[in-house]
Design brief:
Layout (H helix, E strand, L loop, with lengths): L4 H10 L4 E3 L5 H4 L13 E4 L3 H13 L4 E4 L13 E4 L6 E4 L4 E5 L4 H9 L3 E2 L10 H6 L7 H4 L6 E7 L5 E5 L4 H7 L8 E8 L1 E2 L2 E10 L3 H14 L4 E9 L14 E9 L3 H12 L4 E10 L18 E6 L4 H11 L7 E8 L21 E7 L9 H12 L10 H4 L15 H14 L15
Length: 460
């Protein structure tokens, strides 16, 4: 134990939420992650019930020379926390909607599904990620690319301010007017800057869209993929789309029509006249015979059904990157790896179309990486933890090498955070100028590295 019993007792007295130390029976449940392959075992865990608890936890850590880590929903957990103080923010679920000004006040414990539902009551919608189950804050801090990205941009573009506990245990507001350098960094810079307890987030007036997803048989993979790629060459900004080749395991939890099958899923979202949306999607629809799914008019409140990502905890491994573009040769190589009849321990290989509004920065600028990319590519490995350390990384390295002509030299931290042990990937998560400015902001607000970020060696 690297702290005194007296110091720990003072923290227990100061905090209104639970304060646990290694060995306590309640600690594992307090720090459980969405990715069950990552098991946290910090020296101290503080279940923050309010900003004051977060500040008390940071001051305790500083006084005892301990690093501070943060956990909300646990979707971003990639490396086990085995030292220092882990602050859990899942209890910070305050949420309010200012309908007149189209702004949400979002506590750090909220998932997007809660915000989507609350905003929909006022005819509003947040620009979220593909999954409504993901935590709002961690996702936004990295930028965030969702089903409406080409139309509305990165999710972090809609952050209006953040409440932050700094490395000194102070509570500050970061906005365009207060601590503007910290505000700039928090919109895309991800970690190492403080503990965000809440944010003000701009909403858009959107009640419906034309969207959804279709599933096609394995034999249709080449035709659907080529039709989608052709569509993206001229797609308007009102349309955001993606495709994924998915190898569903033969598990009972998988819906029967998909169980044990290899399929291609085409996802589509169009903001505008549904007749035009239908016309735009028709070539993809006609590229094969869909056996499951629907694309049509839908409430904006059902945005997460487009990707229909799983919500149950489980072991997971992924490797993500951005692509400068794609062409016919890229499609040929992709099919040679993931096409019909291919055997590879990757259960999902997803391509998303970017560009449009994602390419334009906000007034005053932000720390988002990846605005120059045209597409993203994410591989999800089979959920077998015995493969996570060596087999899947080696497979992913080989696939990345085969597609290297199209891989962007700039990526985004939300796509690379699960594999930052890959040399150079951390540095490539932002353009060089943004990376260097982020390093300066981190040094200013956290000169003693109270908030270590990332947990891998890097040049910062």
């Amino acid at each position: 134990m690297t702290f005194s019993s007296e110091s720990f007792a003072e923290l227990v007295s100061a905090a209104s939420g639970p304060v646990l130390q290694r060995g306590d029976a309640a600690l594992p449940a307090e720090v459980v992650a969405q990715n069950t392959a990552v098991v946290h075992d910090p020296e101290v865990a503080v279940g923050a019930a309010g900003e004051a608890d977060v500040a008390a936890a940071v001051r305790f850590a500083v006084a005892n020379g301990l690093p501070v880590h943060v956990l909300a929903t646990g979707h971003g957990s990639a490396v086990p926390v085995t030292s220092g103080v882990l602050i859990t923010t899942s209890r910070l679920t305050g949420l309010s909607i200012d309908a007149e000004n189209a702004v949400a006040e979002i506590g750090a414990g909220n998932r997007w599904e809660s915000v989507v539902a609350a905003a929909a009551e006022h005819g509003l919608a947040p620009i979220t990620g593909a999954s409504g189950h993901v935590g709002c804050i961690g996702y936004t801090l990295g930028g965030g690319v969702g089903p409406l990205a080409r139309t509305f941009g990165f999710s972090s573009d809609y952050a209006r301010s953040f409440r932050v506990v700094t490395a000194e245990g102070d509570i500050v507001t970061a906005s365009a007017d207060e601590h503007p350098d910290l505000f700039w960094a928090l919109r895309g810079g991800k970690g190492g800057l403080g503990v965000v307890t809440s944010m003000e987030f701009g909403l858009v007036r959107l009640q419906s869209l034309y969207g959804g997803s279709l599933f096609y048989e394995e034999s249709d993979i080449p035709a659907v993929l080529r039709a989608w790629a052709a569509f993206t060459e001229t797609a308007p900004e009102e349309a955001t789309s993606s495709v994924a080749v998915v190898r569903f395991p033969p598990f009972d939890v998988i819906p029967e029509p998909l169980r044990g099958k290899t399929v291609i899923s085409a996802r589509f979202a169009y903001v505008g006249d549904p007749v035009e949306g239908e016309r735009l999607f028709q070539p993809i629809r006609d590229a094969g015979t869909a056996f499951l799914g629907r694309v049509g008019e839908m409430p904006a409140s059902e945005i997460s059904t487009i990707h229909n990502d799983p919500t149950e905890p489980g072991p997971s491994w992924d490797r993500g990157m951005l692509l400068s573009g794609i062409d016919g040769e890229f499609i040929d190589r992709f099919l040679a790896i993931f096409g019909p009849g291919r055997e590879v321990p990757i259960i999902s290989a997803e391509l998303r179309h970017l560009g449009g509004a994602t390419a334009r920065d906000v007034p005053g600028g932000s720390a988002v990486g990846g605005r120059s990319a045209g597409y993203s590519f994410v591989m999800i490995g089979v959920p077998d933890p015995s493969l996570f350390d060596t087999v899947l990384p080696q497979i992913a390295d080989g696939i990345t090498a085969q597609l290297s002509d199209w891989v962007s030299t700039e990526t985004n931290i939300n796509f690379s955070s699960g594999s930052l042990s890959v040399p150079g990937l951390y540095e490539e998560s932002w353009p060089a100028a943004i990376f260097d400015r982020l390093a300066e902001v981190r040094r200013y607000y956290d000169p003693t590295h109270v908030f270590p970020y990332p947990d891998f060696p890097h040049r910062d």
